[in-house]
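Supplementary Methods, section 5.1.

A reviewer requested that the exact input to the structure prediction be made available. We therefore reproduce it here, unchanged from the version used in the analyses.
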Amino acid sequence: MSYLERIYTCNNFDATHYRSLLIDDKVYGQVQPAFADQLVNWPDIFSVTPTHVTLNPTLADYASRTEAVAPVLRHLHEQGVIDTWVGEAYPITHRFGGHAEMEIERAATNFFGVQSFGIHVNGLVQKADGIHVWVGTRSLDKPFWPGKLDQMVAGGQPVGLGLMDNVVKESKEEANIPQALAQQAKAVGTVSYRQEGWRGLDNSTIYIYDLWLPEDFLPENTDGEVIGFQLLPLAEIAHLTANTQEFKDNCTLVNIDLLLRMGLLTAQHPDYAAICDVLYNAGKRD
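The structure derived from this sequence is encoded token-by-token as follows.
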């Protein structure tokens, strides 16, 4: 195991496994053939070919597209094709805050392989013996990645919510962090990745925040998504990331970014140049 392996695990996208999703003649996602075959049942909404899934061009605006596709997604969920339902709307767009063609249920984003966004917050504590990091353990009844280690706070980015608003919301729900403290989180960068799975393509950009916390602060989960927290030395984060699979896959990317920025992963590492290149560029490549 290695840092590079962690990064490659999150960037295993192979375009030959997918059909391009076209909206208004632009590619917005990637659809696995098995899911594309489900969409054949709605020919008035989707045109499906061996290479493309095209949204009917007569659906010419955000509202009409959203309204037409919503019952399709609900039906596919009721049939068990879309296995979960979150009840959050995600935009179909090329970049955060940019023009969006429509919105869809969060649980469908991987099935369509559309760009999604989220926030991850590093909970950091400066102690006499160095930097420590608060790590959460995901609930065992989570549908995805149960029992895996996670950042102190993390969440998807739904329609109509700003990044800092989401940081504040998720910080309260996941770690009971007061608003005034959560607002001290600093945006430090992004990582993007494209990871294939049985549900389709997780095509995501994570906005990373650092939040320095007092030594006496104790995070407490309030929404049931985390079963506990532990405060680990940064060196232990490095070990767990490089040598185990205890962290949720995309959290390893945030960890590696943190290790680079905090100086635990330096140019002395034999894979340093490749780590920097792949971590910050692989998810953006065609």
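The mean pLDDT is 96. These observations are discussed further in the main text.
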